[in-house]
Design goal:
Blueprint: H1 3-26, H2 30-47, H3 52-55, H4 65-89, H5 94-109, H6 113-136, H7 140-156, H8 162-171, H9 177-206
């Protein structure tokens, strides 16, 4: 995929996750919010957009150039989140979204780096289950259940998703040097978590 297309598809993915985040912030019921957040990953998987947390799961054996692709995707995801948050801030629903997001942002920024890394690690174990299940499950219903369970579990458990956090920090107007550092830590946790199952599967197959 050409760099421009890669970036544009990443911007769209960031926008999709932001819409899921908007749904989550808009609902008082956390379970319903987690369910409707699924629209983000559902749309991304359906249209083939580029989400960092999904793409990083397939980095094993992809070559050094894939790292450049992942960086482009990460930047594009961030741009998509910033754009949606900016647009929403111009509407009547903006203040309510910001108020709820500020509480979330404060909780995340009060945490420590190790905690965030571990929570991000577990998040992308769930994301791998979701995206690989959608990709490879032979049963049509199973594909969509993979998305629903993978996304809802990471949200209800309080795990950290780097792109979702990009949106929450953006709509909360909470960006700072510390925020950027924490998003990078969460990104690294997501990367490691997304590779755990693929690595174990690869080792098992080689020794099977």
């Amino acid at each position: 995929m050409k760099p421009l297309k890669t970036c544009l598809y990443a911007v769209l993915a960031g926008a999709c996750i932001s819409l899921g985040g908007t749904a989550f912030l808009s609902l008082d019921n956390k379970v319903l919010g987690a369910f409707f957040f699924v629209i983000g990953l559902f749309t991304i998987c359906t249209f083939g957009f580029n989400l960092f947390t999904g793409k990083v799961c397939y980095a094993i054996g992809a070559g050094p150039s894939y790292i450049v692709t992942l960086v482009i995707i990460w930047i594009g995801n961030l741009l998509g989140c910033l754009i949606i948050a900016l647009i929403e801030s111009l509407t009547r629903i903006g203040p309510a979204l910001t108020e709820r997001a500020v509480t979330m942002a404060n909780t995340k920024l009060a945490d420590n780096g190790l905690s965030l890394f571990i929570l991000a690690f577990f998040c992308n174990v769930c994301i791998y289950i979701a995206v690989d299940g959608f990709k490879n499950n032979p049963h049509e219903l199973g594909k969509y259940l993979s998305l629903v369970f993978g996304v809802m579990v990471f949200i209800l458990c309080g795990f950290e998703h780097s792109v979702a956090d990009m949106y929450y920090f953006s709509i909360a107007h909470a960006w700072s040097a510390k925020t950027l550092l924490y998003v990078i830590i969460i990104t690294l946790g997501n990367a490691v978590g997304g590779l755990v199952i693929p690595v174990f599967k690869l080792v098992a197959e080689k020794n099977g």
